[in-house]
Design goal:
Strand order of the largest sheet of chain A: 3-2-4-5-7-6-12
Shape of chain A: globular
Number of domains of chain B: 1
CATH class of chain B: Alpha Beta
Oligomer: heterodimer
Number of strands of chain B: 7
Shape of chain B: globular
CATH architecture of the largest domain in chain A: 3-Layer(aba) Sandwich
Radius of gyration of chain B: 18 Å
Strand content of chain B: 5-15%
Order of helices and strands of chain A: EHEHHEHEHHEHEHEEEEHEEHEHEHH
Number of helices of chain A: 13
Order of helices and strands of chain B: HHEHHEHEEEHHEHEH
Radius of gyration of chain A: 19 Å
Helix content of chain B: 25-40%
Strand content of chain A: 15-25%
């Protein structure tokens, strides 16, 4: 059943649920961060509209810096601005930042340890029609390998808003991953958010059976996981759904507790299973509490054109595929 | 402002001491770059002993000018100069590249107070310097009295990096007149002469086309270099680049102009010989090519 403490929206499973993109949450969140702290500046590489950086641009034109299509320079300039006391958010598509400018981020931001917030938009296959070139599927892996880098993948626009505000208040570099597609806004302003903390979305009723599988997910697929858990519960298969907006540092206590209770773990992410969120969970559990694990994600493939729904289904990341994975796992 | 003859002699003498330290630290390290640091000793001396507003005893002094070394591989000359300027004991120079040293093989800001950035991978310093220049020019509260000048030291080889030109475009667009770039035009890189590896010329025309003010100077002539930096301060509409023609290996005649000395240190024997050659010049480094 839904975890009451998560304070999710009332109509979680309604087809009428409001939708928005996590990039929308970025656009509004960074305005809030800018209001709270005059050191916040936004740099954008010729994608002001589609990254939603234009919202900040309208509010604080003097603190918005147009970089042109030059993501490497954007990383370095942001590093320099941070060195001069600013808190720069850099916005582009994730394939370009941190994709193209990775080593610039590594040297001038991560190793240099300055508070630049790297905002990668259009992550995952749900970018849709743009196709494989623009569907970033390797960024979680790249960024979580960097020492000192915090990695956050919000579940919806509301959580994205909170993540952006919290990032501005955090020392050190942060990578924030956002999607293009409109997805259900199932958390609320009351839903707890703290960098490094996981959120239990679904839990078997107290006093009932233990969960058979712990579904541990990140990003907007946490909603899909919730949908699957709801259907499965109706079929008598109890699961828990643990949403980890912060991929790094992983909420080890929460992941460990979930694995202990269920004894089986399924991870879900819109990212290559190699090196991504599922890998992070598997690495941690294999050393601390080995349990059987299935990792759902993109299986060593690139994306392609299509609608977000078609693509998520094709790559096995819709609710039906998650249900099937749980059923199959429980039978083993 | 022209410097006096006494100042000139004092700076030349200081540059020679820095070259001595350089050779000793490279021998001790057993790896590292020789030609670039020797060639740039005069410019570093000019910066740390004449041009920069800085306080070696208080590296975080807010009003300091910012010197960003982009081509971090020539850091031995940065370390040697900083030590002579009083940032840390000169003896510490011999820890270069050793385990536990603050003097990393390429500079790391978090290791050594006084470093503005972490650098080494080429083509990144001009972006960082431009970001600082933009921040101090356009993002300060109106009440702020902070007006540091931002200096970015680059190599000629890193003009081959595309990101250098992204940064050049940015600094030109935003007319970052508080930024002065200095290019060490010594014409060598690891694999040979720059014009053979990947032709860079016409560099001055390229920067002019990117809306920079361009100066060319003998980088081993301290008074001429200081005069060029003064001129850059008087340019209000554009960033300035000083293309400083330097002699790689400058001060040790037997290795001058030899690209094979880009990326290796002298052996103990060679080091002894180099020091002897250096001393016979009698502090007259900047005279002979003036």
């Amino acid at each position: 059943m839904l975890n009451e403490n998560a304070k999710l929206t009332e109509n979680v499973f309604s087809t009428e649920i409001k939708t928005a993109s996590t990039r929308d949450g970025f656009g509004h969140g960074v305005i809030e961060a800018g209001k709270a702290d005059s050191r916040v500046v936004v740099l954008c590489a010729d994608l002001a509209e589609s990254t939603r950086a234009e919202l900040f641009q309208k509010e604080f034109p003097e603190r918005f810096i147009e970089m042109g299509v030059a993501e490497q320079n954007m990383a370095g300039v942001a590093s320099g601005m941070a060195g001069a006391g600013k808190i720069p958010f850099i916005a582009s598509y994730a394939v370009f930042s941190p994709g193209r400018n990775y080593e610039h981020i590594r040297t001038t931001i991560a190793l240099n340890n300055v508070p630049v917030k790297i905002c990668g938009m259009h992550a995952g296959v749900s970018v849709g029609p743009d196709g494989a070139t623009h569907q970033m599927l390797e960024d979680i892996g790249m960024m979580r390998m960097l020492p000192g880098m915090t990695v956050i993948v919000p579940a919806d626009s509301e959580e994205a808003w909170k993540a952006v505000v919290a990032s501005a208040q955090t020392d050190g570099p942060v990578y924030l991953r956002f999607g293009r597609a409109n997805t259900p806004v199932f958390t609320t302003s009351e839903t707890p958010f703290q960098i490094g903390k996981a959120l239990m979305l679904w839990d078997p009723p107290a006093g009932g059976d233990a969960p058979k599988v712990a579904i541990i997910s990140t990003g907007s697929l946490s909603y899909t996981a919730l949908e699957a858990a709801n259907v499965l519960a109706g079929d008598g298969i109890e699961t828990l759904v643990l949403h980890c907006p912060t991929v790094k540092p992983l909420d080890r206590d929460a992941v460990l507790a979930a694995a202990r209770r269920a004894g089986r773990v399924i991870t879900i992410e819109e990212h290559q299973t190699a090196g991504g969120f599922g890998s992070a969970v598997a690495e941690f559990l294999s050393e601390n509490h080995p349990v059987p694990i299935r990792r759902l994600g993109i299986q060593d493939r690139f994306g392609q054109s299509g609608s977000p729904e078609e693509l998520l289904k094709h790559y096995g990341l819709d609710a039906l595929h998650i249900e099937d994975a749980v059923r199959e796992f429980v039978r083993v | 402002m022209m410097i006096t003859e006494e100042q000139k002699i004092a700076l030349d003498t200081q540059a020679e001491k820095i070259r001595e330290t350089l050779i000793n630290m490279l021998v001790s390290a057993g790896s590292g770059h020789t030609a670039g640091p020797l060639g740039m000793a005069d410019i570093f001396t000019a910066f740390y002993f004449h041009i920069l507003a800085h306080k070696p005893g208080n590296p975080q002094w807010e009003e300091r000018d910012r010197l960003i070394l982009s081509n971090g591989h020539i850091c031995p000359v940065l370390y040697a100069t900083m030590a002579h300027a009083g940032y840390f004991p000169i003896e510490e120079c011999l820890t270069l590249r050793k385990f536990g040293s603050r003097l990393q093989g390429h500079p790391e800001r978090l290791k050594l107070p006084g470093l503005e950035t972490t650098s080494g991978p080429l083509g990144e310093g001009l972006s960082q310097a431009s970001g600082m220049a933009y921040a101090f020019k356009n993002l300060q509260p109106a009440s702020s009295k902070l007006k540091p000048r931002i200096y970015c030291l680059m190599s000629d080889g890193e003009q081959e990096e595309g990101s250098t030109w992204e940064a050049a475009m940015f600094a030109g667009k935003y007319k970052l007149s508080n930024l002065t770039a200095v290019m060490d035009r010594n014409n060598i890189q690891i694999d040979g002469m720059t014009e053979d590896v990947m032709p860079l010329e016409p560099l001055a025309d390229k920067y002019r086309a990117f809306n920079w003010h361009v100066l060319e100077v003998n980088g081993n002539d301290i008074p001429a270099f200081i005069a060029a930096v003064d001129e850059a301060k008087a340019i209000y509409e554009k960033p300035t680049i000083i293309i400083a023609h330097t002699i790689p290996g400058k001060g040790v005649p037997e290795i001058e102009f030899d690209y094979r000395w880009h990326g290796k240190p002298p052996t103990k024997e060679e080091g002894k010989r180099f020091l002897k050659e250096l001393r016979t010049l009698g502090g007259k480094i900047s005279h002979d090519y003036a």
